[in-house]
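Two proteins follow. First one:
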Amino acid sequence: MTDWTPKPNDSGKPHYLAIADAIGADIAAGRLKAGDRLPPQRRLAAALGIDFTTVSRAYTEAQARGLVTSHVGRGSFVSAPPAAPLADPARRAAEDLSMNMPPEPTDPDLLAGMQAGLMAVSGHLVDLLRYQSPIGTEPDRLAARSWLGPRGLDVALERIAVTPGAHATMAAVLSMLCKAGDHVLCEQVTYPGIRNIAARFGVTLVGLQTDARGVVPEALQAAIRRHRPKALYLNPTLHNPTTLTLPAERRAALAAILRAEGLALIEDDAYGFVPAEAPAPLAQQIPELTWYIGGLSKCLGAGLRLAFTVTPDARATHRLTQAIRALSVMPAPLSLALTTRWIEQGTAEALRQALRNETAARQAIARRALEGCDYATATSAFHIWLQLPQGLGRADVIARMAGQPLGLMPSDAFTVGAVPQDRLRVSLGGSISRAQLQTALCHLGHALSAQGYMG
C-alpha cells in the first residue's frame, strides 16, 4: 500500500510523532495490515509538504515502536502484530494479595501501546544496564514535572527527584529527618508501610484522632506540643485504608498549623493521581515544609517501583539524593526509561484513564454483591473499608474466605496507638477478573450474612 497518507496533524505533537501515531492508529483500525509497504519517505514528505528528515524520523520512531520494519533498498513495511502476551504462571502465583493493587489493563490497543514503549526503550538496553543518577536524568525529571502539573505542582526542576518507589522514598526521608527515639505523627489508622519503616529506624509513631474530614486540627496541635515530633505523615487523598479524601478546608487548617510550628510534612499522594479531580496537595500550600511523594504503584503499576518526589528546596533535593544513593542506589533505569516513554507518548495517561474506568466498574460490582453491608469507599478507590457485624471477628472472616482470590487485610495492620476496629480492607484490584471478583465478593457477603448481618 504505497498510496497511504496520514491525516493532517492537528494533535499539537511534532510531525514525526503524529505520523508514527497515525501508523499505529491505522494498523489498529485495520487500514494498514501486516506486510503493507509504506510510501517512500521522499514521496510522503512531498505529499504532506514537510521535510524529508521529518518523515525519516517518523519511520524510525515507528520502527522503534515495533510497528514497521525497514529494509535497505526495499522500503518500510508494516510489521506482523506481536504475539498475544503470555501469562507467567510462576509470577502470577507469587502475586501478593495482601497488597492493595490497581486493576490490571486488558484492552488490546492499550497493551500494544505499552509493549511498543518497552520495545522502543529496549533499543538502548546496554545504556540502561549502567549505574545512573539516584534521582533520574533530566528528561526523566521533565516527564515527572509534566505528570505532576495537573496535580497543581508546577515546580522548578531542582526540586524534583525520581525515586525508587514511595516506600523507599519514605525510608530515605525518615532517615534524614529522624533518629532512633524520635516521634512522627500520623493518622490513627494509617498506611502499614510507614509503620514498618518507622519500626526499622526506631522511630515512634503517634496516631492522631480523626473525624469524618480527616485529622482533627486540635489533636495535631496538642500532639505537637506534647511530643515535639520531627514530622507529620499524611495520606490525604483516597486514604489507605479508609478511602477518605481530606476536603480543602481541612487541608488548609492542617497546613496553617504546620506552617506556624515549622513542622515537616511527609505527604503520601499514592492515590492522588487516580481520580479525575482531587483536591490540591498540601505541598501546594506549604512547599517549604513538604516532602511530597507521588508514587506510581497505584496509577501505573506496582512493578515499576517509581515515585515522583518534590522536595522543599534544592538543598533538600541534594540531601535526598545522598540518602537514596546510600539506601537504594537509584531507581531502576529500565523502569524509569519505560515510564518516561509512556508519559511522553500518552500511554501513561491512557493507562490511567483505563484504570479509572475499570475501578468504576468494580465499584459497581461491589455495590451489587455487598448490598446491605456496612463499608466505606469512594468512586475512584479500588478497595473498600468493611465494617464487620457484631460478634464476627476479623480472623473469622479471613478464615471463611480462605482460597478466594481476594485481598483481605485486617485493621490491626493499620492501627497506631489504639484498639483495632473490627474492619477489613478488601481490595478490588490485581489480576482478578470482574467475574472472579463478583464470585469472591458474593462469597464474602455470604460469610458476613451467616451472622444475620445482611438483613
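Second one, unrelated to the first:
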Amino acid sequence: MSRRSAYIYSDALSRHVLREDHPFVPSRLRLAYELLESYHAFKESDALLVSPRPATEEEVASFHDKEYVAAVKGFSRGQSLVDPAIYNFSDYGDNPTYKGMYEASALAVGASLVSAEQVLDGEVDVAFNTSGGLHHAGPKYASGFCVFNDVAIAIGYLLKWGMRVAYVDIDVHHGDGVQDAFYDTDAVLTISLHESGQYLFPGTGHVAEMGTGKGKGYAVNLPLAPYTDDERYLWAFNEVVPPLIKAFNPDILVTQLGIDSHYLDPLAHLQLTTHAYTTAIEELGKLAPKWIALGGGGYEPGTFARSITLAYGVMINKEWPNEIPPDYRERYGLTELRDRDRPNIEESAKETAQRFAEDSVQEIKKLIFPFHGIRSLIPPSS
C-alpha cells in the first residue's frame, strides 16, 4: 500500500547528553537518520523530511503540571530552587537533570505534535518521530528516562480535534504513563505489549489493569515472559492486536515502536529479531488509514539504527537491500540491515514463555474482548 510519509528530524534532537554513562543516548537518532540517508530514503517521491519545532510551554502544560514544567526549566538552567527528588530526578538514577533538558524535551514533544499536524492536515498518511515515544513520564514527575510525555500530549491534541485514537506500544517496557493518562476514557484504546512487570521496570502492565469508568476495557496489557522469541511474540500479537483495533475502528493509529525487545538489547530479556519487529509493524500499518509513529527504547545503537530504517521502509512501502551501503558500513562497521543470527534459547525457557503468552492472551480474551463485542473461543484451563 502506497503512503505519503513524513520523517521528523533535525540534528538538534540528537545532541544532548543525559549523563556520560547513561544508557539513553540521543545520538542514536543521528545514526538512524544517517542510515536512512545512505539508502536515499528521503529522495523517494512520497517521503518527506520535515523539521521539528519546540513545543510551547502551553502545549507541554496541556498534560504536565505547571509547577513541574517550571521546575524542569530551572533544572535545565542549572538552578535547583526545589529538591529534584520531588519530581523523581537524581544525578545517579534513571532521570538525571542536565543542561538544556527543557529545550531537548520540548523539542521532542514538538516533533510529535508536528507529526500529528502533518497527518491531521492531510499532508501525509504517516509521520514518524523517532525522538518521541517517551511513554513513562507522568504529569508531575519524570520516569524511565522520560521528562515530558510527548505521546500523551500528542494524543490529547488529536482528541481536541474529535479523533478516535488507538495507541499500540511495542516497547519492551509497559507504557504506563500513556495508559494512566487515558485510563478513564473510551475515546482512546491503549494496547501495550511488554515484558511482564513481574520481571522488568516499571512493574506494571498486568492484564487486570483494564481501565476504569467509561474507560473500562479500553486499557489492554499483554505481558510476556523473559525469553519470548519471534514465533511466540507474533502469535500473541496477532491474537490480540488486530481484532481489538478492528473492533475499535479508530480514526488514527498512534504507535510507540521501541526496539528494546531485541535480543541484543542490554536492558531487558525479550528475544526478538528484526524479523518479528518488522512483521509487527507491517501488521500495524494495515490497521488504520492514518498513522503517527513514535520511537521509544533501544539501547544498542546499531540495532536501533537498523530497526528504525526497517520500520520506515514499511511506512513508505520500500524494501531496502540487506547489504548496508558502503559509506555507512565504513563509518560504523554495520554490514547487514536484517538479523541473520537468532538467539539461542533453551527449550525450557521457550516452553515457559509459550505458557505465559497463552495465559495472557486467554485472560485478555476473557476480560477485554467482551467490551468490544468480540466473540472468541477460549479453551478451558488445563
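SUMMARY FIELD: The radius of gyration is 20 Å. The chain has a mean pLDDT of 96.
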